[in-house]
Amino acid sequence: MAASLWIDTDPSGLVWTGLDCDDDLALLAALALHGRGAIELDSVSICGGNAPLRHTWDDAARLWEFVGWKRTEPSSQAHEDGRGIFKPTMGRGWNEMQPGVSLLRLYHRLFGDDPVTTRGGAGDSTADAEHALSLYLRSSSDDDHIGANQTSRPRRRNVLMLGPPTNLARALSRMSEKTQLDVTEHAHIFLMGGELTNSTLDLNFRSDRRSARQIIQADVPKTIIPIQTCAQVAITSEHLESFGCSAESDLAVCALMSKMRQQVTLMPLFVNPSVKERLPPGGRWTASPGIDRGFVPWDLVALLAVSHPHEFSEWEYHRVSFPECAGGEPCDGTMRSLEDIGPAFGGSDWRGVVRVPHKVRNETRLVELMLDLVGNITTENERPHMSWGYIGDLKGIGIATLSFLYISFRLRRLNR
């Protein structure tokens, strides 16, 4: 039986000003893995991160409506609309975080992060993601999932965090210490995030370093897929051309083509140079040869670490921490690697301990798998449009400013 998987994510592939598109790609790949029986995709929850929650929520709702995902066996935690399509649940946004980029913090102060739900049929804005997530983790040892004879082992529950870890931290806060011990027996947490050279963290952990600290200190089995592992893989324009997207194509991934091309152009200029600094030449990790002309598919790498662990090597355990500071979060935006435990760990106390897959065995093979998965989802629905994101908000300010200047000019003319 495939392990159950809950994905918490911050998709922005349908938003021009969103910071990346790999969350959307990971969702498509997860649907393909679910269809092939490699995972049992239980539910999806949405947080802010790459964009404010109102943008990521709108992105998820439109993507979900576009692919029209239906489950053959309903999940106890998933929410369904009248057509039998299972919907994402809404979690926390920037209001509960500390955005790790100064421009994002300024934007948040100007516009806030209150979602405007206009597509209720595609998403459930009334659902409490952290509550549903805590129920999902607790139910790993419930009688309903063990069976009437109480002899079968409960199905393993995995949680994959592809955005800031806020929703999961809140879910763990709802649990008693005893409940967390029960979760330890039957659940595993995977987090796309972390940095192993004591440099500045990735955006996920830096956006809510307090929640990252809480999860790392929890006595629950956990794996991080850090910057150093993800940067061993890159998607280039040659890979994008392999989809053969056209106006008539029914591949769902073609709806993300504009955003993927944007990422191929911008990431080598603005993000990848700092990423390469965290994989110094001659060190343990080697950056992808395509990192100077493509984007890192962070969340696809993390997803495949869950579904295809054999594609990774040098799995080791480390003791890490997130030092606190007097000035409050996000502090210096770092994670400290305190101790290399090695490939074996007794598992008696997971507080501060994480498992890490250090190496991608074969980048070419992993990219081929990614392309195969995201290119597996087809739909007859009309492609969703790209939304303007921040530009729409700033356009409103621009119009208001011009209107004010025009009225002021007219008043001055009248008073002459």
Automatic annotation (TrEMBL):
This is Inosine/uridine-preferring nucleoside hydrolase domain-containing protein. One of its GO terms (biological process) is purine nucleoside catabolic process. The chain crosses the membrane at residues 388-409. GO terms for molecular function: purine nucleosidase activity. One of its GO terms (cellular component) is cytosol. Belongs to the IUNH family. Residues 5-335 form the Inosine/uridine-preferring nucleoside hydrolase domain. Pfam families: IU_nuc_hydro. The keyword Transmembrane helix applies. Keywords: Glycosidase, Hydrolase, Membrane, Transmembrane, Transmembrane helix.
